[in-house]
Amino acid sequence: MIEALQAFRERGDVVYGPPGHKQGRGADPRVVAVVGEGVFASDVLTLNGLDDRRESQGVTKQAEDLMADAVDADTAFFSTCGSSLSVKTAIMSVAGPGEKLLISRNAHKSVMAGVIVSGIVPVWVHPHFDEDLALAHPPEPEDVRQALAANPDARGMLLITPTDWGTCADIAGVAAVCHEYGVPLIVDEAWGAHLPFHPDLPAWGMDAGADLVVTSVHKMGAAVEQSSVFHLKGDRVDPSVLKQREDLLGTTSSSSLVYLTLDGWRRQMVEQGEQLLGAALAQAARLRAAIDGIDGLSLMGREVVRPGGAFNLDPLVSTMDVRPLGISGYQAGDWLRAGRQVDIASADACRISVRLTHGDDDGTVDRLISALQALVEAAPAMERQAPVDLPTPRSLELETVMRPRDAFFARVEQVPIDQAVGRVAAEMVSPYPPGVPVVTPGEQVNQQVVDYLTSGVKAGMLVPDAADPELTTLRVVAR
Ligand SMILES: Cc1ncc(COP(=O)(O)O)c(C=O)c1O
Question: Which of 221, 250, 266 is the last residue of a domain?
Answer without folding.
Answer: 266
